[in-house]
Amino acid sequence: MNIVNFSSDEFETKQIEVAHLEEVLKDFRRDGYVIFKDIFPKEYVNSLYSDFINTYGHYFSEENDKNVIKVGNKRIQVSVEVKGAFNSPNLYANPFVLNFLRSIFNNCFIISDLTCVSSLPGAKKMRIHRDGAIFEGLALAPLLPAHAIGLLIPLIPFTRLNGPTRYWPGSHRINQSLADFEENLNFIEPEIDTGSCILMDHRLVHSGNPNRSEQIRPLLYCNYSLPWYFDYINFKHEAHLKVEDTNFEKIPEEYKPFFQRRNMKLL
Fold first, then answer.
1. What is the CA angle 129-130-133, rounded to 5?
2. Residues 36, 42, 44, 48, CA torsion sign
3. 53 contact partners, CB below 8 Å, separation of at least 6
4. What pLDDT, in 10s, does the model give residues 10-33?
5. Which terms are listed as keywords in the entry (predicted)?
6. Residue 56 region, left (φ>0) first, then alpha (ψ -120 to 50), else beta?
7. Where on the phi/psi map is residue 23: left (φ > 0), alpha (ψ -120 to 50), or beta?
8. Which tens digit of pLDDT belongs to each residue from 196-228?
9. Is the Cβ–Cβ distance between 211 and 234 less than 8 Å?
10. Which among 15, 21, 192, 239 would be 20 to 30 A from 35, CA to CA?
């Protein structure tokens, strides 16, 4: 598993050492994912969880709400507004994440959306899918560099009981139908504690496991992409990135360009 532990020197400088970064990039390009360990303070992740439940908890019993997208059995996707604990560079501008993204995207990227997918108690296995692909089915597609990367942050510890996500390493480089992965046993199911995260190529094949616990299991997605890419499947009728003017003004000037697509809709 591509688990990245940072040294005390890296935490002090908030920079990934050059040789270490090259290793991380090599692993990511080969396998389509890396796991960054302990880069968010647990107290901060707890505040994200608290804000999320307090603001959106009622959606879990109102499945027809216009702000809710059902993405599977007892699985709900909510667009998270950039406010409160979510309006913080701690989330969207983590120095280790930015260091990584700047290398992958050659300093040219934006935040495409901020969402949270919650697996409710009793949720069944999710369908196998990719979060987004371009030129799908063409021989060229697996050869292209990443066009979008998801920063996936568990808001509670992900365990065998509540259903860690299943990933097929290297599947972003395989021009193969999703049905073929049903019998493919070359997957990982990382259990991830709060404070850690996964960075995932949007083309990587994955699937949510059943939630056998009694607790809602929220997974926060802060998705970054090249400026020309749109997720036209999930966000046709609602904004990709919800930021009111008053909250936009609270964002430091150096990070405001990340939010250039705020409040945009395709239709």
1. 140
2. positive
3. 216, 218
4. 999 999 999 999 999 999 999 999
5. Dioxygenase, Membrane, Oxidoreductase, Transmembrane, Transmembrane helix
6. alpha
7. alpha
8. 999 999 999 999 999 999 999 999 999 999 999
9. no
10. 239
